[in-house]
Each structure stands twice: as structure tokens, then as C-alpha cells.
Amino acid sequence: MADVEQVNVEVQEPSQAPHGKHGGHPSVKEYIRIAVVLAVLTGLEVAVTYTSVGSATLIVVLFGLAAIKFALVAMYFMHLKFDDRRYSRFFLMGLALALTLFMIVLILFQVFLR
User: What is the extent of the structural domain holding 102?
Assistant: First the structure.
């Protein structure tokens, strides 16, 4: 019979596992706080749509609130704030490329001349 060698494996809890270059990730309490901020910003967006401001002002305000919400989600839920800066740069380069392509398509179809 062949000898069977016993192997001891230690299992680490996720909070104790080494993260390499990762920084500390947010706690559950911080995630809840971010979710509350996102809910308040969404409520503010809905409230702004019921005001009697001009359409240009409305669009600027809604885009601003959407940009804030986007930044919060990207930083915390996608962990870009805590990971290596290269990931943030790759993400921003892809975003810039997508926005550039979007603007080129809008210009080609003469959307701004209508």
C-alpha cells in the first residue's frame, strides 16, 4: 500500500487574508453610510425634477448629481479608491475613450445642429 501523506491547510478568514497592495476596504457600516448617501442623492434628483427650473439648469443639476453618484459607486463599490492607482487610470482611460467615441457619433449624426 502506498503511504498517504497528511497535509494541514490553514484557512484564513477574509478579513485576515493578506491583500498585497490593497488598502483597507470599507466596513459594513461604511457601506451602509454610502448607500444612504446614494439614496439621499437619488431623492434629491427626483425632487429637482418636480421644481420649475429651466430645462438647461435641470440638465446641468441632474448631470452633476449623477456624476457624484457615479464617483461614489466607482470609488467604493468597485474598490477603485483602495486598489492600486493603475486600475483607476485604466478605468478613467476607458471612460474617456467611451465619452470621446460618443461625442464623435453625436457630431457625425449632426445631433447638435438640430
Answer: 84-114
